[in-house]
Automatic annotation (TrEMBL):
Its EC number is 4.2.1.90. One of its GO terms (molecular function) is magnesium ion binding. InterPro entries: Enolase-like_C_sf, Enolase-like_N, Enolase_C-like, L-lyxonate_dehydratase, L-Rhamnon_dehydrat, Mandelate_racemase_C, Mandelate_racemase_N_dom, RHMD-like. CDD domains: MR_like_2. One of its GO terms (biological process) is carbohydrate catabolic process. This is L-rhamnonate dehydratase. Keywords: Magnesium, Metal-binding. Residues 158-261 form the Mandelate racemase/muconate lactonizing enzyme C-terminal domain. It comes from Paraburkholderia franconis.
Length: 390
């Protein structure tokens, strides 16, 4: 079996969108002087879909959601020629080939995201070629089903957040991640608002369910030091990405300082990036994303690394490629789960592109033993609402 072609297309959503609410989530732009930029930069309405086809007609699907137009260009210009004509079973060689050939400019960020998409598609091919789900090629089933946490609760009106938490509590979720709306630029009033929102969600879900707190890089070390002691009484399971991804010392300092586990990694790349985070005890929960980190080949290695460091790994963003790794990894206790909503930030866009994403039941996800590959197909239902760039 040889790889015959690699096709990368950008799916740009043109359908209905829900405008983001006021301070729906803090982010890395918040410290800049032009606050009007902050929320508008925080949207992902395009996706790159990669199809790797073999000479015996198997088509594997991969995807990447960071800077999709650039990812497509990298795949077309640099990566496709490196894998076409090759045996997909040489996946380690192919992953290294893509990683090393683009190392001068691609080893972090969009270069790795593009590699990830091709690698994921190759794994889909492998599963399909032997009639096995991908998780069976990675170690198989380590859990009966995957516990997942409800991930949304953007910062809006507190009553609306409480109603949202109640709705998904009633659906059987036992873990919830909420977003902070305020950062350093909002001063002490923002601190108060942040604390109020945590209190409001705890009021609904109680203390026998897990609560995760998301900063999306919208704070800095000084601000985090001020607010963390006040958050401890709410017993969060973790506090996510308090500072920008490059501030590893900042993560390490905060992780030493507080009893709240600091989590991160959705903006980190490669095996080496995660070794650094773990060596420096910068995070207590690792949250790589398979379609950023270097694909399934790389994520599988990071899982092993996390196991050896006794740090749980809970991939970012839900999605099939992450679920297969979570299912096959003892070090991975649960998955993030974004339910399907109207298109808003874009975290939900993959539901509009792919068929086959599992739907949570009572806070659990299931992967089927009898569906080969990743178990995804391109969806036709919303096709006319995308502009597709070949
Ligand atoms: Mg996050």
């Amino acid at each position: 079996m040889k790889i015959k072609s690699v096709r990368a297309r950008v799916f740009q959503w043109k359908g209905k969108t829900v405008p983001p609410q006021g301070n729906f989530c803090s982010n890395a732009m918040d410290v800049l002087y032009a606050p009007q930029e902050t929320m508008s930069t925080f949207r992902f309405h395009s996706w790159t879909v990669v199809e790797v086809e073999t000479d015996d007609g198997i088509v594997g699907l991969g995807n990447v959601a960071l800077a999709p137009q650039v990812a497509k260009l990298i795949i077309d210009e640099y990566l496709a020629p490196l894998v076409i004509g090759q045996d997909p079973w040489d996946y380690e060689y192919l992953n290294q080939r893509m990683y090393r050939a683009t190392h001068a400019w691609g080893r972090k960020g969009i270069g790795m995201a593009a590699i990830s998409a091709v690698d994921i598609a190759i794994w889909d091919v492998l599963g399909k070629s032997v009639g096995k789900p991908v998780f069976k090629l990675l170690g198989g089933r380590t859990k009966e089903r995957i516990p997942c946490y409800y991930s949304k609760l953007y910062r809006t009106d507190l009553k609306a957040m409480q109603a949202e938490a109640q709705k998904f509590l009633d659906q059987g979720f036992r873990a919830f991640k909420m977003r902070f709306g305020y950062g350093p630029a909002h001063g002490q009033q923002g601190v108060v608002e942040n604390l109020k929102s945590v209190e409001a969600v705890r009021e609904v879900i109680g203390y026998d369910n897990d609560l995760m707190l998301e900063c999306y890089m919208g704070w800095n070390v000084e601000y985090a030091k001020r607010i963390l002691p006040k958050l401890e009484k709410f017993q969060p399971r973790w506090l996510e990405e308090p500072v920008i991804a490059d501030d590893i010392d900042g993560y390490a300092e905060l992780n030493r300082l507080t009893s709240i586990p600091i989590s991160g990694g959705e903006h980190e790349f490669s095996l080496y990036g995660f070794k650094q985070l773990l060596d420096r005890k910068a995070v207590s929960v690792v949250q790589y994303d398979t379609n950023r980190v270097g694909g399934i080949t790389m994520a599988h290695k990071i899982n092993a690394l996390c196991e050896a460091y006794s740090v749980p790994v809970i991939p970012h963003a839900g999605q099939m490629h992450n679920y297969h790794l979570t299912m096959s990894t003892l070090a991975s206790p649960m998955s993030e789960y974004f339910p399907m909503f109207d298109v808003e930030v874009g975290n939900e866009l993959f539901y509009y592109i792919f068929d086959g994403e599992p739907v949570a039941e009572n806070g659990f996800l299931q992967l089927r033993d009898d569906v080969p590959g990743l178990g995804l197909k391109l969806k036709t239902e919303f096709l006319d609402q995308f502009e597709i760039v070949e």
